[in-house]
Amino acid sequence: MKKVAIFGSTGSIGTQALSVIASNPRRVKAAVLTCKSRVDMLRNQIRRFRPEAVVVDRKEDAAELRREYRDLKVFYGADGLEEAAGAMDYDIFLNALVGIAGLRPTMAAIKRGAVTIALANKETLVTGGRLVMREAAASGVPVVPVDSEHSAVFQCLAGNQENSIRRILLTASGGPFRGYDRSRLESVTLGDALIHPTWKMGRKITVDSATLINKGFEVIEAKWLFDVDASCIEVAIHPQSIVHSLVEFEDGALLAQLGVSDMKAPISYAFSWPERWATDSRTLDLIGTRSLYFEEPAGEARRSLDMAYRVLREIQESEGDSSAVVLNGADEALVELFLAGKIPFVAILDTLEDLLDKHTPRGIESIEDIMDIDLEARTTVRERWGQHKI
Ligand code: NDP
Ligand code: MG
Fold it and tell me: Does ligand 1 have an atom closer than 6 angstroms to the CB of 97?
């Protein structure tokens, strides 16, 4: 029986992970569950899955839960996430938190050791890829991606040598605004941005998929996970979301992983790896699909990707990792403002480009450096848009 810590158990990935656990009661068990503010949902999860520990955001909620569940260990706040990750007993650490809030807990789990990191929280690698992968290698801790594209690449690599990769091709659905030009994007609403054509996900990643900065983050995530040069990572628009990604090897062989759009598949694979477990996922009707199509990212779709490649150039040429932290932190703040109805959709990429232009890349020594640069980027965004009304 493997014990799983699910950080972010009340979110889109977290709840799907719990349904994978519910389908495999003899193989996996929830050991730690966490939420930020949806404490009532967490209470239901505690009753059903009986974890040994939970983490909530507020001290008052922690005190109430301690009164309600005498045997439960209850932690709270950002420090509580880190503490629980470092102190509790589990075999798999599923990071399903959203944003840079996932970075310190991942590091604490790696340092604890004897664990598999199942990583959905891409912001961990976008901001701290160099430090996190270095620590994981030093501690012998495997990082198994849950992001569907990276899970696909990881599966294609099984049994192959990383140094035989010629090209990684990440697929992208193109989001709800595929083919829109600038003038159409100027009038899109929050409601329009929150409807994703093929995946149902949390609000932040849904907006990131609409701007395509999500795919930019995934290019950076791939660089750290698979230790490849940015020139070997390409993106193809594939609106059907059937081919989850591909790897081309030195001998010209192109391996792909295909399936229906269901995040329970990569979650289950991360739990079962290196084995595979039966799931209740639908199977893909290949004959009914008839054809698969792909297109080059063009026009507005290129802007986010161009930013990611520019950041990677800075990382590769001068170890200027701070640009990726700025991109991530500013995006988190901008998406928050967009979700609150305070800025228009086009302001997200416009502001990101402007902040990158003004930023002088520098190296990063520690997690504290990353948190400082992140705070600076968020503060700049809030100062710029604080008084703005649309
Ligand atoms: P959700 O917003 O649905 O869930 C986020 C979870 O994290 C919730 O449990 C939430 O608690 C908790 N949380 C949010 N902010 C904080 C914080 N500051 N401190 C502590 N806990 C916090 O996100 P998703 O499940 O969609 O995404 C999770 C991660 O997985 C992201 O990094 C995303 O990019 C990645 N991912 C998601 C995919 C998907 O299909 N959803 C696909 C591929 C990658 P509460 O519920 O109380 O707010
Ligand atoms: Mg993805």
Answer: yes
